[in-house]
């Protein structure tokens, strides 16, 4: 793939590899299903199946003829598939995936060589699937460093694993990620549910239990492939923007668990804002997604783990304050985990936090836990990233599902919710057990903090500017 002139870096190579793998995996799974169920009708027309056009190199088109056929017949044929309208129809999923998929390779000979390599992977073999899944996840990690602004859909696996383990979805519960990205939360949630399964029926229940929404075509394609590699054959992921549904509809479609890292720092279209109450409308996506999550949890009295930037904690005026008031009065915001700087680098240096809450307020006390950097470390790097083991003390302190026997220590402290309300619902609270000793902090650390504060100020001014435009 590196030899092909049409592929410029990982952002081109990974989508190209993904849709080819997707077709190979889909065909393998369908052929296996036809053996198990002789009455099964394949979703793809014969000519578009991998086994028909790709598997046999003696029958496969070569050179420019292959490129012409892929661009002019294969991809348009896949994009034009018509589903039955029934939920879970694979034709609808295929059409959605391939409507915005392009062949980026220019050399038919190199494409043919790539097809030969992909054809060696057998998606009916558990060993091949697991090996490919590990390879694919490593490629996703590499992709984040080349992604630039597109990196918003990547969440470090240790953070995902922590959130899933602490929220602890149970078999039979429904799990939603309204901003699914490449599917990290859904993959981890499925593995968590599958570990509880004791039969094929319960495994099938686990697969049906996870769902999500993703509005961007590239992460949507990557998510579909990611779930397919983890043996979720018909992923319930919809290619749409979660914010386009009115909150009343979100409440009706309730779920037991939400796990998500929604995009923040962006602005939504005015049509999406009309789905939210007038007094809680804001262009900042983090606040909109927080409202969506709360609405989704109301019907089933569910629970949530969500990643938010510092701005969500300190904002205490206007719509943000009203949203946080609803959070603390109608939900139990039981835990705020303050992550060290650099966890989400290189996308943002703004400190991030994990909010854990459940329906059924009001909140009485909010526990804060400041997870420290490892001893002697000043930040995280590509070669020395966050490790899951660094959350061991936090998990030991957590107190299980009942969150029992929590105690204050150098990293943990408790705040009365009434005091938070009196302070305008400000949650950007410092650790009272840690002295803010400027003399012993490095210049680099101080500069990073100043930059983060300036970014928060600019973010607040941006919101004010938007609101002033609206008043005008």
Written overview of the protein:
The chain has 472 residues and is α/β, with parallel strands linked by helices. It has helices spanning 10-36, 50-53, 63-79, 90-99, 108-118, 126-146, 157-167, 184-194, 200-209, 217-229, 247-252, 270-273, 285-298, 310-314, 318-330, 392-398, 417-422, 443-471; strands at residues 175-177, 210-214, 236-239, 257-260, 303-309, 331-338, 352-359, 365-370, 412-416. The radius of gyration is 24 Å and the shape is globular. Residues 147-153 have low confidence and may be disordered.
Structural topology:
Elements: H1 10-36, H2 50-53, H3 63-79, H4 90-99, H5 108-118, H6 126-146, H7 157-167, E1 175-177, H8 184-194, H9 200-209, E2 210-214, H10 217-229, E3 236-239, H11 247-252, E4 257-260, H12 270-273, H13 285-298, E5 303-309, H14 310-314, H15 318-330, E6 331-338, E7 352-359, E8 365-370, H16 392-398, E9 412-416, H17 417-422, H18 443-471
Parallel strand pairs: 1-2, 1-4, 2-3, 4-5, 6-8
Antiparallel strand pairs: 5-7, 6-7, 8-9
Helix pairs in contact: 1-10, 3-4, 3-5, 7-8
InterPro entries: DNA_Adenine_Mtase, DNA_methylase_A-5, DNA_methylase_N6_adenine_CS, SAM-dependent_MTases_sf, T1MK-like_N_sf
Domain DNA methylase adenine-specific: 129-435
Enzyme class: transferase
